[in-house]
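Reading a protein record of the kind used here takes little practice once its layout is understood. The fold follows as a row of integers, each naming the local backbone shape at the matching residue. With these conventions in mind, the following record can be read line by line:

_____
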Amino acid sequence: MVTKFSEDKLRQDSSNHQPPVDLEMIARGVRLILEGIGEDLTRPGLQETPTRVAEMYQELTAGMREDPQEHVVPLPGDKHDEMVIVKDISIASLCEHHLAPFVGKCHIAYIPKDGRILGISKLARLAETFSRRLQLQERLTTDIANTLYEGLKPVGVMVVIEAEHTCMTLRGVRKANAKTITSAVLGGFRNDPRTRAEAMALITGKE
């Protein structure tokens, strides 16, 4: 069975020179996986599964075709000189080792320089863009921090991510509820332990 995808599903943003998603190719691969595990592709519950999975992967990797720098644009006319923190940003990504999801929370803190700030939604969009890619949590954390630090040029940046990896909780060691915590600390947060401790206390809610 050949699935036809509408043109709007196939259109991609090529601004960062990534090739468009080939939904038909993904669907073919899904059919092979289903056949490989011994499933019957003709049964009603699976007839549209290759299409649905292809569209899911297109959505979960959308960040590959987005430019994260677009979200790092200072607000014109608005200034602030104290620490800014956006915490508990929900993220969902795919571990590049097993193509298994990992989900969790991202916390972003920065200290403005010369009053330059971002709209708070831009921090969430930055995390979303990098998470919607094949990722490692460690690289995801660093990518967010480096992009914010290079684009906004603040005094300091701190990014902390805590996530649950299904490649660890559902397979392998099968340790349910295990969480991985990663951090990236740049500039003033790295150089001043007291400022770093203040940010961590605000993120964790612990003094």
